[in-house]
Amino acid sequence: MAIKKLKKGYDLKLKGGITNEAITIAPRPTECAIIPDDFEGLIPRMEKKEGEHVQAGEALYHDKTHECIVVTSPISGTVKAIVRGERRKIEKIIIEADQANEYKTFNLNDTKSALLESGLWAMLRQRPYDVVPTPEATPRDIFVTCFDSAPLAPDLTLINADKAQYLQKGVDVLKTITGGNVYLGCREGQEIELNGAETVVFKGPHPAGNAGIQVANIKPVNKGEVVWTTDVVTLARIGELFSTGKVNYDTVVAITGQQVEQPCYVKTVMGAPLSTLLEGKLCDNGKTPRIISGNVLTGYHVMADEYLRAPYRHITVIPELQKEDEFMGWASLSPKKFSVYRNFTGWLLGMNRKEMNVDARMNGGERAIVMSGEYDRMLPMDIYAEFLIKAIIAFDIDKMEQLGIYEVAPEDFALCEFADTSKLELQRIVRDGLNRLRKEMS
Asked: Which of 17, 272, 368, 416 sits 20 to 30 Å CA-CA off 107?
């Protein structure tokens, strides 16, 4: 068992964490939704029309380029609506649940075909480009992250406890796909040891739980190589599929944040309506809530009438406070002000080590890139992050390749974006750069 100690990064401690680890079971939702944008790299072509019946695990749409890659329904029922946006882009597919949840069964004789037909293939990611893997590529190695280090993130060991018996089967399946190793990235004290997999323990702050960070510190990706990444929850789903012949889209969601009355774990289904999950759980303090499907660094800002987004295991609710005025603003000497860089006096009183109240304000405007080494302090990878961002903006392919574009994903820059003096949208810049590079290289 190898141990990796990471010094770079930062643990953002927020109020609104879960103290009671009991899991409550939510009523079966009357409808669920699939958001195609959650499956990066796929261009959807519908296989079902509005009004048609679909089983849990049955294909809703396939990828335009690779038709064998499908995204499936999390529940059985009727396709209620196919919502389209500009240029007829499919924004979401809503499935109205029926009374009996019927599951599609799969032929497990061929591993790759079963993963493709069940939709679990679409829940894997590959480096480079951080997209759904192409069917023809064979991964050098497969990396499974077994913990989430993001702010207020759920304990993956806890939410996956009732599926632990499927993990070994999941590793056995992945071993048949790669000629290399299957790596399990674990947190100290929560080690998972399985036959056929190599366990690596990570010590250090966020983003130690990111798959890309673990890949970079175990065995980095070089040009021309392909590796796959996933999480331990998906690993258990793969194991369950090859144990039972059915794909199970149940999920445990952590509902956290300062605007949640009692943060808790809730068991529901992927793509469930947020309104049913949050009903009666938000604080009635007069503040406008910002609902985030995911964590505060990488999640999606959604409305209360929308649906749970991938990776389907976390909801964070914080206050908006868009118009709150503060005495002296950024020049305030208040010890309650927080700064990563100790710009306020609060760090003398240990404010940076305590749980903090945060809201959705930017606290600054976009400006020129400040080359001060900020990104390097937050990113435990052997790359020059600031120079890589500049190369992406200029779309200098040679520079991008030399500076490690094939190793990174947008989530790896989320903490850099939080601490960035320049207030740049680093995740959007990286995603746009990866998409343009992929298109250029194909």
From this structure: 272
- Is the pTM higher than 0.90? yes
Would you state the pLDDT for residue 331? 66
Q: Where are the domains of the chain?
A: 2-29+105-244, 374-441
Tell me the two tokens of residue 431. 């995603």
Amino acid letter, residue 186: C
The pLDDT score that the predictor gives to residue 368 is: 79
C-alpha distances in Å from residue 220, one per residue of 43, 138, 149, 217, 225? 28, 16, 20, 7, 10
Structural contact between residues 156 and 183, judged by C-beta atoms closer than 8 angstroms: no
Q: Give the DSSP H/E element, type plus range, for residue 251.
A: strand 250-256
Q: What angle do CA 56, 58, 60 make, to 5 degrees?
A: 110
Helix 232-244 × helix 167-175 angle, to 10°: 90
State the DSSP H helix or E strand holding residue 201, giving kind and residue range, or none if neither.
Answer: strand 197-203
Among 212, 240, 256, smallest CA distance to 414 is for 212
Q: What are the pLDDT digits (tens) for 235-265?
A: 999 999 999 999 999 999 999 999 999 999 9
